[in-house]
Design a protein that fits this description.
membrane, transmembrane helix, 3 helices, about 110 residues, about 75% helix
Length: about 110
């Protein structure tokens, strides 16, 4: 009976962590996607501010104990920033990728 309770508790905790990380990733992606018209520095500042705010909200809403607080702050913060940075990198690659022009006919050597 005790092992079943531990397994169920672990499954609930892992599902909660997955939900927090998924919403944090969506928040980072949506923040950067919605702020396309802002300069890059403002977009990064907005992303970091929203990431810190969302991490603080998760910690205060869940009432995390003091010993777990750094990890609980770091996971949503890093997930949000990584998601937003990934979107920024993909967007920059699209803008600055040189187009390779291939000849209309293959060259014969």
């Amino acid at each position: 009976m005790g092992l079943l309770v531990i397994v169920i508790a672990l499954a609930v905790v892992l599902a909660g962590i997955a939900a927090i990380l998924a919403t944090s990733a969506v928040l980072g992606y949506a923040t950067v996607a919605a702020s396309r018209r802002l300069p890059l520095g403002a977009r990064i500042a907005l992303l970091v501010a929203l990431a810190a705010g969302s991490a603080a909200v998760w910690v205060s809403a869940l009432g995390i104990w003091a010993i777990w607080r750094p990890a609980a702050l770091a996971l949503p913060f890093l997930t949000t920033v990584a998601s937003g940075a990934g979107f920024l990198a993909r967007e920059a690659r699209k803008r600055h990728t040189p187009r390779v022009r291939y000849p209309a006919w293959p060259a014969r050597h």
